[in-house]
Write a structure and sequence with these properties.
Blueprint lengths: L3 E2 L2 E2 L2 E5 L5 E4 L4 E6 L7 E6 L8 E7 L2 E10 L2 H11 L7 E6 L4 E8 L13 E10 L4 E2 L4 E4 L26 E5 L7 E6 L5 E5 L4 E5 L7 E6 L6 E6 L6 E2 L16 E9 L6 E2 L4 E5 L2 E2 L3
Antiparallel strand pairs: 1-2, 3-4, 3-9, 5-8, 6-7, 8-11, 9-10, 10-11, 12-24, 13-23, 14-21, 15-18, 15-23, 16-17, 16-21, 18-19, 19-20, 21-22
């Protein structure tokens, strides 16, 4: 994108609403003059006092939603562009996808307008200023693309931060897959298990959690498990097909919908039972997006 222009870092926001309408806030006709809330987000800290003990114990931190206020200058064709702005930033449509980028980073977040754009009716003017306030249910910025890890390929990293980070790659020399989360917090995963396979157990050896598939996955079929607490689901489908069936009943009720801890995670997958149980790294595909507190 623009990078540094006239000593000022150029910033760009792209918003796509729930019905697929997209608008860019960058240069004319919608010049992004101000955006805040990129890094700061409030935390709700819960703690318990213990009699006779200084300070507090059992501290739990819950992040609040993120709020992103923006100011936009409408340049040219005020009536037409004002209508476009109001149509795209329609709160009644629900959450859309907001992408923020500058010369350093490009990340996304789910967001909903808190109100229709506020555009004062002032005349005569060359530009009109609009105020747009976005609320993000999840406070975390995320990669735009998934990082993909399996036995046969090095990770396809979806991050858009131009950083040099230590990376561990899965190899056939290991009896586990090395999955590295370089984000700021734990992150959910999408686990794709291809058949034929039975009595599948997937372990996150780092967190001590596991998922146990109690039903057989037939040949040419796959089971897809999404551990995102906001979008948790289990789908069973013919490989390459669009149609899928809800398959929660294929999992043991005590299964953990685990997430990736920050840093290195060791993931194993076993199939079979008794003397026939063995590693099956070739059956597993792992996808995830790294999450960030601020940009």
């Amino acid at each position: 994108i623009g990078g540094i222009v006239g000593g000022v870092e150029m910033q760009k926001v792209t918003f796509t609403n729930a019905v697929g309408e997209t608008i860019e806030l960058y240069r004319r006709p919608f010049f992004l003059s101000k955006v805040e809330g990129l890094g700061d987000v409030d935390a709700n800290i819960h703690s318990i006092n213990s009699p006779g003990l200084d300070g507090v114990v059992d501290v739990e931190v819950v992040m609040e939603p993120r709020y992103i206020p923006m100011e936009v200058d409408i340049i040219d064709d005020h009536k037409v562009n004002q209508r476009i702005l109001s149509k795209v930033f329609n709160p009644k449509l629900g959450c859309g996808k907001l992408i923020y980028e500058n010369g350093y980073v490009k990340v996304g977040i789910s967001a909903i307008p808190e109100h229709a754009p506020k555009i004062p009716d002032t005349r005569p003017i060359v530009t009109k200023k609009a105020t747009i306030d976005m609320m993000c249910p999840s406070p975390y910025w995320e990669d735009l693309e998934y990082t993909v890890v399996n036995q046969d390929s090095t990770p396809t990293d979806g991050t858009s931060f131009p950083l040099t980070l230590p990376t561990s790659f899965p190899t056939t020399d290991y009896d586990y897959l090395v999955v590295e989360n370089n984000g700021d917090v734990e992150t959910p995963v999408i686990l794709e298990i291809t058949g034929p396979a039975d009595n599948v157990i997937i372990n996150n050896e780092t967190t001590g959690e596991s998922i146990n598939v109690i039903s057989q996955i037939r040949e040419s079929y796959k089971l897809v498990i999404n551990t995102d607490p906001r979008n948790r689901k289990v789908d069973y489908m013919f490989a390459g097909a669009v149609n899928k069936a809800d398959a929660y009943d294929m999992l043991n009720i005590d299964s953990d919908f685990f997430q990736l801890a920050v840093g290195v995670n060791k993931i194993t997958i076993y199939t079979g039972s008794g003397a026939d149980q063995g590693l099956a790294l070739d059956r597993l595909n792992i996808k995830y997006k790294q999450l960030y507190i601020g940009v």
